[in-house]
Amino acid sequence: MGHMEKPTGSFNQSVYDLMMGNSYIAYSDQMLPKNESIASDLSTLKFLEVGVWWCTKTYRTAVDDGKSVTEEVGVRSELVQPSVTVNLHWAGDFFGCYVSRTCNKTYGAREAHLRPPPHVNQQDDYRLHVWTALKWSASLGTQNQFQSAFIDRNRGVIASNGGGIAKAYAVSLFGDFYSTALPSQEDQMRNTRALARNSAQTLTNL
């Protein structure tokens, strides 16, 4: 897993305006020959792009027999007006001000204004503090989205770099440990999307 240094064009502009994490996953369905590195033959690699961005959502909650059920009604990812990026890897002035402790001067109280979610008062104001968003992006990117895992033919982890998210994506792509066959491409995509959605939901809950 690695960071995208610039937008790839696979998402629309309203998403890129609010994207705090944009990473790629490189993997191969083929076994590497003994004593050979991935760098020796990049043609075996496949790539997935994972994006995490800010949005506004509308929910509906119902209570039945004392149990609440919450349903997502609508979602919107759109700035009222363009602002500075909230992705630390795309913000050229963030690292400098962070190291020199001058981000308060650089960003101050600058805010991005998000368009309200569907089915609510369109006069409501949803604000995103830019400095706070960049800090979130830093936490997401440096701790979770720059990792690697090396697994054997039985999906056992031989070595890994970073935390557990790379291992989680490895399982979603290659299946349970000791399985006899790889998941289909449709299942690989379904599994990785589910993992990305669960990660995003965790961030939302936090």
List the helices and strands and how they pair.
Elements: E1 2-3, H1 13-17, E2 19-27, E3 46-53, E4 56-64, E5 67-76, H2 94-100, H3 103-107, E6 111-114, E7 126-129, H4 130-144, E8 148-151, E9 157-161, H5 165-174, H6 185-205
Antiparallel strand pairs: 1-2, 2-3, 4-5, 6-7, 8-9
Helix pairs in contact: 5-6
User: How many discrete structural domains?
Assistant: 2
Please count the beta strands (DSSP E, at least 2 residues each). Answer: 9
Low-pLDDT ranges: none
Count, helices: 6
Q: What structural class do you assign from the helix and strand content?
A: alpha+beta
Q: Reading side by side through the largest sheet, how are the strands ordered?
A: 1-2-3
Order of helices and strands: EHEEEEHHEEHEEHH
> Portion of residues in helices?
25-40%
Rg, nearest Å = 20 Å
Strand content: 25-35%
